[in-house]
Amino acid sequence: xxxxxxxxxxxxxxxxxxxxxxxxxxxxxxxxxxxxxxxxxxxxxxxxxxxxxxxxxxxxxxxxxxxxxxxxxxxxxxxxxxxxxxxxxxxxxxxxxxxxxxxxxxxxxxxxxxxxxxxxxxxxxx
Length: 126
Fold this sequence. Notes:
By secondary structure, the chain is an alpha+beta fold. The protein has one helix at 8-45, and strands at residues 48-64, 77-84, 90-96, 106-114, 119-123. It is elongated.
């Protein structure tokens, strides 16, 4: 029995035809993952350029995570919706369970202005 010789070019064409759908699928999955991951990674890299203490009124409180069994090893925290006194803007601020604030109470929060123009807020422990 003689051995058939298939050229390298023909082998590559066969591989391309055989795995075309898989290559397209994997490439599409990687591209979508990259598009989702880039904004998340770059948001955390932006350094804080200014800090400001602001005061607001608590409008709503909920626990995070909503399902305590969803994230094992992380404590339950409060997520506050706070209306800023100066601008009237409604912002979300996370706080520890050990120091709950009632709806309607006045809280001091720290406004962190980042280099990319975004603002984040952190509850001050007083």
